[in-house]
Amino acid sequence: MARTLIITGGSRGIGAATAKLAARQGYAVCIAYRSDTTSAEEVVSAIKAAGGEAIAVKVDVAKEEDVIALFDTAERSLGPIAGLVNNAAIIASHSRVEDISHERLQRMFAVNAIGPFLCSREAVRRMSTRRGGAGGAIVNVSSSSAQMGSANEYVDYAATKGALETMTIGLAKEVAREGIRVNGVRPGHIYTEMHASGGEPGRVDRLKDTIPMGRGGQPEEVAEAIVWLLSDKASFATGGFLNVNGGK
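Structure tokens predicted for NAD(P)-dependent oxidoreductase (248 residues):
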């Protein structure tokens, strides 16, 4: 039976690239998505066309009942959970902190910080050897913004990623003797559709000259790091982060 991997935010960008790569590595992939059914189904179709196994499940990771249903569906349809990629995240238009609304903060933290907590909780409950599971791996998709702060653009988004990183470190220590490894990746400026959500579709091109390597990254380059951390090749790595940011 294939190892089942759940990827949140799996319909586009880094999530979609990770889903396709993981499927080629032998995972049965559950693509969790919030709204873009067409894109999610396209990823599933691409994986199946290449001989892999995949399903798509609509979910709002900020809702506990949705998250529980996601894991139950993935397990029932594909088999025991062996991995989780917490990739789903939202961003909002560029704003200074003094102009950010309470509603925006609540939604940002609900999706980007609480969502990964809920998903990780459900993954641990199923994978922990202490609970009868077979172990597994969790990879949290953070951002270089967690270290840089994203002043004048989206400090709130950066702060949610800082929370995600702290959770990564703490959870890694908590389940290290239960067969579960927990790591993170920090993408830098990557060509994905997320930048349009922030009001600047061309943001990567604007900033690429500030990157030591002189270019933006591709989702597939981040996917390689994620899938490596999921794999047995990273068997002694937990509580750490891989920077995939061209040196910035």
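The first helix runs from residue 13 to 24.
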